[in-house]
Amino acid sequence: MGGRVYERSENVKTMLILLLSCALLVATVSAQAPDDVLSNNHEKTERWQVSPTLDSVITDYLNAINQDSIASYMSQLVGFKTRFMLAENRRDIAVWIEQKFSEFGLTDVVIDSFQNTLEYPPRSGQLHTTWQYNVVAALKGTECPDTVFVLGAHDDCFIMGPQVDPYSYSPGANNNASGVAVCLEIARVMAQKSFKPRCTINFVAFGAEEFMTMLSGGHTGSQHYIQRLKESGQTVGLMIDNNQISYRPSNDNWELDFQNCPGSQWVTDLAHGLCEKYTKIVPVDTNDHINYTDAYYFWSAGYPTIFFEEFHFCPHTFTDKDIPENCDPVYCAEVAKISCAMLLYSNHSASTDSEETE
């Protein structure tokens, strides 16, 4: 009896030791895992640390971004009733955008026309060859003018469904007046503060994006723009695309899709670091929509690219409910800060000591 009791005691002791060891191992791994994640995030953020001088500049510019201005631009674009690429008012829209850039004080603003051919309605056999328009506003670089940093967004929109007519009504407040509004607002702030970039910054409103997969000839606005750059001997140092960035279903939702283009990891890392430092936005890395916006053509051409899109995809997209009342300019302004900070960090003023800020 005593021998069996001893054996049982030893077995229990052994089992307790094993259980305790496992518990300690699990506790150790659990304690280390968050540290590893924090370490990785810390390294990502630390990589893009800024000097006090540049930090002051970025903070000053971001504080000047105005949510009311963004809301106003969106409302004025919706005021055209439609921005369908086959509607007769497409040049009027381009002229309005050109005038806004000029009002801000940008002196190098052009409307660049191009033709494309589209079958519409789809599978109808009806081909429409039309003139389309990009609007390009430039801040010329003082040191490397042939390297271009692009902040872009498409200005056309579309509505679909039974008994709708995109020729007469297609509001497109979120998709994509929001992206154009961010482009305009950052241009306004930089012009107001007389920003002098080392490399050229182009603010671009692209035409003819919505049917980018359906064009039977010609180019989308982004394709045409890239072709123009190549013909001029310029190259793209960075492309930032904002597309649908004003829908937030509740006040505590600050998530934003960082649509990551393979091969552009440094751009994504930069966006993460500056986003964490200067905004409330919670980034969510994905690449599920990179084939469906102007950023696709820049990425395909081998240029460093990122595309920002709201995390909660707007249920009003392509409907008559895509109106300013269903958009959140506070969220949109916060998203704008990421693009602005990226442009400032990557292409700071020539008057700033590059060794100090890089």
What does this entry look like structurally?
With 358 residues, the chain is an alpha/beta fold. The chain has two domains: 1-46; 48-357, 3-Layer(aba) Sandwich (Aminopeptidase), CATH 3.40.630. It contains ten helices and nine strands. Strands 5-1-2-4-3-6-9-7-8 form a nine-stranded mixed sheet, sandwiched between helices. β1 and β2 (127-139) form a beta hairpin. It is globular and about 60 Å long.
Q: Can you describe this structure in just a few lines?
A:
With 358 residues, this protein is an alpha/beta fold.
- Helix percent reads 40-55%
In spatial order, strands of the major sheet run 5-1-2-4-3-6-9-7-8
Classify the beta-strand content into a percent band: 15-25%
Poorly predicted regions are 1-43, 349-358
CATH architecture term of the largest domain: 3-Layer(aba) Sandwich
H/E element sequence: HHHHEEEHEEHEEHEHEHH
| Largest sheet composition | 9 strands, mixed
Approximate shape: globular
Strand and helix layout:
Layout: H1 2-46, H2 52-63, H3 67-78, H4 90-104, E1 108-119, E2 127-139, E3 144-154, H5 173-192, E4 199-206, E5 215-218, H6 221-232, E6 235-242, E7 255-260, H7 265-278, E8 282-286, H8 295-300, E9 305-310, H9 329-346, H10 354-357
Parallel strand pairs: 3-4, 3-6, 6-9, 7-8
Antiparallel strand pairs: 1-2, 1-5, 2-4, 7-9
Helix pairs in contact: 2-9, 3-5, 3-9, 4-5, 5-9, 7-9
Key terms for this structure?
disordered C terminus; 10 helices; alpha/beta; Aminopeptidase; single chain
